[in-house]
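Our consortium's second objective concerns turning raw sequence data into structural hypotheses that experimental partners can test. To show how far this objective has progressed, the report includes one record in full. It was chosen at random from the queue rather than selected for favorable results. The single chain below, 200 residues long, was entered without modification.
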Amino acid sequence: MLYAKRERFNKISNFCGRIFSKICSSPNIWTAFGIIPAVLSFYFLVKQNFLIAAGFFILTAIIDFIDGSVARVTKRVSNFGAYLDTVVDRVTEFIILFGLYLIEYPDILWPTRLWLFFLLFGSLMTTYVKSAAFEKKIVNKEIRGGILERGERMMLLLLIIVLSNYSLVYAAILIMLTTIVANLSALQRFIIAIKQWGFA
């Protein structure tokens, strides 16, 4: 959903790219650097210092924005950079989800740790269904869109972390809802792929 509004961020992206490329002109270094605040966010999640964890999580998201901005401004966009960015995205998301997994949330219908397991599954499948469909030539270009892309999923994870500071029950409910929507998003992309292939 945020992808459709991406053009609106171009001016901000160009501005950030010019500023941060003066600090480091390598977008790949910026990408790798994003793991550090994710690890710090994990540490504070385990300590249940949720607002500090949320701050480092926001820093991770900012760096994820900066690397692409620097790549475009310096004209260093590359297939390897896109590949590295995708890998680091999955790593940082796993780190945050693992931090949430170690918190004793109350159970909502199922054990909350089971919801988090399926949230990780849905997050990975949303990306894999898209990549596999393109790799196997089921579709001519990568599938975009969906009810819960990575940007929205990250915002919901941030909200879960912040909400955990005030109510573990409400945070657990949001984990459940995010899990459901994440898996529906993966299913949505799968349906889009088979429709483009001509099966349906």
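The partners drew two points from this record. The mean pLDDT is 84. The two ends are 24 Å apart (CA to CA). Both points have been shared with the crystallography group to help prioritize constructs.
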